[in-house]
Amino acid sequence: MNYKFINFIKTNWLIILILLVGAFLRLYKIDQYMTFLGDEGRDSIVVRNLLVHKDLFLIGPGTSVGNMYLGPLYYYLIAIPLALANFSPVGPAVFVALLGVFTIWFVYFVGCEWFSKKAGLIASLLFAVSPTVIIFSHSSWNPNIMPFFALLTVYSVWKFWKKGLYSWLVVLGISFAFCLQSHYLGLLLAPVILLFWVWKVLRFNLAGNWTGEVASFMRMSIFGLITFLFLMSPLLAFDIRHNWLNTNSLVKFVTERETTVSAKPWSALPRIPEIAENISTSLLGVGNKNLGNLILTIVSIPSILFVLSRKKLHKNEAEGFLFLTVWLFFGFIGFGIYKQPIYDHYFGFLFPAIFLFFAGFIDGILENLSKIGVGLIYLLLGFLVIWNISETPILKEPNRQMARAQNVATKIIDESKTAEFNLAVIADSNYEDGYRYFLEKESDKVVKIDAQIEESIKDQLFVVCEKPKEKCDPTHSPKAEVANFGWSKVESVWEVDGVIIYKLVHSKKQ
After folding, report:
1. Which helix (H) or strand (E) element contains residue 318?
2. CA atoms within 13 A on the CB side of 309
3. What string of H, E and C letters represents the secondary structure of 148-187?
4. Distances (CA, A) of 53 to 38, 48, 58, 62, 234
5. Which of 48, 119, 194, 436 has the fewest CB atoms within 10 Å around its CB?
6. Hey, which residues does 382 pair with through a beta bridge?
7. What mean pLDDT comes out for the span 159-185?
8. DSSP string, 66-112
9. Mean of pLDDT values over 91-106
10. What is the band of 300 on the pLDDT scale with cuts at 50, 70, 90?
11. What is the rounded CA–CA span in Å between residue 507 and residue 495?
12. Residues contacting residue 136 through CB under 8 Å, at least 6 positions apart
């Protein structure tokens, strides 16, 4: 037993080291580096209500554009980590970080299967140390699970298309449902699935006997579809109960061409170089545009054609490049027709594809170069790794957002004198749910103002201002919570962890 274990370590020490590095970069002081603002507070409130008050739900988080809702799978996914952490938001953050570490191994595994062990190591190493990937791997947020489930979706397609393992169609149904309920950009994986599914059908002799392999394929396809529809059914039930709110919002989002998406897919083609540059800069270039452009130049179409012409690809390798190319192509087209700003987390469903494609390409280059050329490539890779690590988030000052929310909540509870109160937050990019989570967790006195219910307006309003003091002016803030509280005056002021807390009480109109 010991011999087998030692032999396993000797054989796999490099990937073990990469996993340890990846785990350290994601888990080190995670309670201080994790993001905990309004979105994370909202998620924690919903999941805590499920665990404490048995409040079941049919929808997940709302989208930032389009007035749509995602499905609830992410909320149910983080319920157990939140419970195990005694309702500390650190629990779900650790869960997402561990899923990120597992994704590093998954990238390695797929790289080995599609290309070589060398390619798997390169892809997993760069994935492990990328600051952008790390940022979205040590906080609990629904888009942060997308890289794992996107890779699982595409790998499931590979397993039924290439290997003929049709039970993976059920895994595909599960993973694709998680993708869509993580972020609606998961829809860009649908053409990949459909293309290879139709391709597989065309491979069969449909005039043959349907009791054999074709029947098995179609049966598992139906099981996979049923599994997918079952996991999406809560969202459908919500839509039916609310007059197709989500569906109508999605149709409106797609059809409002002027501000959302273009109806002409070919209009995306001129934008592909810009999109590729942004992704290369964000994921491989450590945020440096010059480095991102350099990498993009190296991994250019002429270079790829040169490698493919010089290297005799084994079948898995050729088909691996095919899968990655199709995956990236539909992703780029989707971003190309999208007219809204594109943020780094939007690339989540492409994260694994970028690193695997780059690693597969580098693996091909290494087999076509002299020793000096190979040395230069390894020098470039070493430079990339060192630069990535030098920009890793844990070398920067931690945000301590969760501790701030806790401390502010504690101060408000102390100053409320056990009386009920209302809450408002004045900030440029945050809202009150981050603070509200700890207030509800530690006290039952915080009441949300409803302008239609007079009893919801209490005698004191605590306003948390994250802006400089001269820009706060809480009594004249346009925030709905302040306006609905009515005429008010400042009774007390405190400063906690860099934010200002105002206690407002009612005053008569002058």
Report:
1. helix 315-337
2. 6
3. HHHHHHHHHHHHHHCCCCCCHHHHHHHHHHHHHHHCHHHH
4. 21, 8, 15, 22, 19
5. 194
6. none
7. 94
8. SS-B--SHHHHHHHHHHHHTTT-THHHHHHHHHHHHHHHHHHHHHHH
9. 97
10. low
11. 23
12. 143, 144, 147, 344, 345, 348
Strand pairing class (499-506; 460-465) = antiparallel
Q: Is the dihedral of CA 187, 189, 191, 197 positive or negative?
A: negative
Task: Give this prediction's pTM.
Answer: 0.92
Nearest to 60 by CA among 87, 37, 78, 80: 78
Could you tell me if 62 and 75 are in contact, meaning their C-beta atoms sit under 8 angstroms apart? no
| Distance, CA of 372 to CA of 390 (rounded, Å) | 27
Give the residue among 154, 137, 141 at the shortest CA–CA distance from 103. 137
Which of 56-70, 159-173, 228-242, 244-258 bottoms out in mean pLDDT, i.e. has the lowest?
A: 244-258
- Encoding tokens for residue 476? 């004249």
**pLDDT (0 to 100) of residue 303:** 61
Instruction: Tell me the C-alpha distance between 492 and 509, whole Å.
Output: 20
23 pLDDT above the threshold of 70 = yes
**β-sheet bridge partners, residue 62:** 69
Residue 491 is classified by DSSP as E
pLDDT at 263: 63
Q: Is the pLDDT of residue 320 over 80?
A: yes
User: What is d(CA 438, CA 267) in angstroms, rounded to the nearest whole number?
Assistant: 48
Both tokens of 111, joined, read: 């790289």
Buried b (16+ CB within 10 A) or exposed e, 162-173: beeebebbbbbb
C-alpha 414/C-alpha 183 separation (Å) is: 39
Question: In what helix (H) or strand (E) does residue 424 lie, and over which residues does it extend?
Answer: strand 422-426
3-state secondary structure 367-385: CCCCHHHHHHHHHHHHHHH
Token reading at 33: 């580096």
> What H or E segment, with its residue span, contains residue 502?
strand 499-506
In whole angstroms, how far apart are CA 277 and each of 134, 186, 340, 354, 489?
20, 21, 17, 12, 52
| Range of weakest confidence among 29-33, 236-240, 501-505 | 236-240
Are the CB atoms for 462 and 416 separated by under 8 Å?
yes
Percentage of the chain beyond pLDDT 70 is 91
